[in-house]
Amino acid sequence: MAEATILVTGASGFVGPHVVAALAGAGWRPRLALRRPVPVPAGVETVLTGDLAGPIDWSAALQGVDHVVHMAGLAHAGPGLDEALYRRINTEATLELARAAAAAGIRRFVHLSSIKALSGAFDGPPLSEEAPPAPADPYGRSKLAAEQGLAGLDLDWVNLRPVLVYGPGVKANMAALLRLARLPLPLPFGGLQAPRSLLAVENLADAIRFALSPACPARQSYVVSDPEPISVAGLLTALRAGLGRGPGLLPVPEGWLGLAARLAGREETFRKLAGSLVARPERLLRAGWRPPAETRAALARLAASARAG
């Protein structure tokens, strides 16, 4: 493991710096595949490869590499994007890199997939890793197609399916909740107690480190999440604790909030917020993975870092 070189794609995004730091801290040498020059930590090797939307010659980037961590892709951007673009970037480009890795004798290929490859639900019973995948949108289908393509290659691959990731620099829905938590007002969300799985970015980085180790069985797909789900009320309480404040949550019944959301034309947004979506990392835990961050403490650190910034 020590001194092995790992080609990392997608390292310039929100998750990337945490992954690079975790790999370097474990004694590996990350080599970052970049579309264009960007600032990187001192001493980290880079190679320019171009955009995944077009063909890439991976031979130089893979020279002397032991493992690949493939995080680059087209993010889940909602409706409006052509499904062919998702397939090109998330499926075809992934498999082109994987085939080049197989030809180069790469020892392990870790693919950052998504929980959306397993299910498109945002409310319902807990998801099972044993259930047949049922993606519901172009993003999820493109990720599942990449997983299925990897299964046909002579390569030690690992698919990681993270749930919603949070941490410093997070955007979208979690950033909106953080803005709510920072408001100096009581919030009417004390009644939102449905459990939801989240994933601390440091836990994702550690799961990637673990997926590269011999302890993690290859040629399997794994849900990645914090082991214990948390409710919206619990999430906001943890964020406000990081801000040095009490919860300040009013126990307004969920039905009343749902009615207000319907009247405002925001019913689907409210369902995503209030629904229960639990996906536990059972396979990773059975393999021996022990996530380093506890959810409430990690959420409090997120809020504290946002306040400091």
Written account of the structure:
Pfam families: Epimerase. By secondary structure, this protein is of the alpha/beta class. The protein has a domain at 5-163 and 200-225 and 279-291: 3-Layer(aba) Sandwich (Rossmann fold). The chain has eleven helices and nine strands. It has helices at 16-25, 59-62, 83-103, 138-151, 172-182, 201-211, 232-242, 254-263, 267-274, 282-287, 295-308, and strands at residues 5-9, 29-34, 45-48, 67-70, 108-112, 157-162, 165-166, 199-200, 220-224. The strands form two sheets. The protein has a seven-stranded parallel beta sheet with strand order 3-2-1-4-5-6-9, with helices on both faces. A two-stranded parallel ribbon has the order 7-8. Helix 3 (83-103) packs parallel to helix 4. The relative contact order is 0.13.
Mean pLDDT: 92
CATH architecture of the domain at 5-163 and 200-225 and 279-291, by name, is 3-Layer(aba) Sandwich
**Low-confidence segments, ≥5 residues, pLDDT <50?**
none
User: What helical percentage do the residues reach?
Assistant: 25-40%
Order of strands side by side in the largest beta sheet? 3-2-1-4-5-6-9
Main sheet record: 7 strands, parallel
The SSE string, one letter per element, is EHEEHEHEHEEHEHEHHHHH
Q: How many helices?
A: 11
Which superfamily, in CATH terms, is the homologous superfamily of the domain at 5-163 and 200-225 and 279-291? Answer: NAD(P)-binding Rossmann-like Domain
The counted number of beta strands is: 9
Distance linking N and C termini:
36 Å
Question: Within the CATH hierarchy, at the fold level, what is the topology of the domain at 5-163 and 200-225 and 279-291?
Answer: Rossmann fold
Question: What structural class is derived from the secondary structure elements?
Answer: alpha/beta
Strand content bin: 5-15%
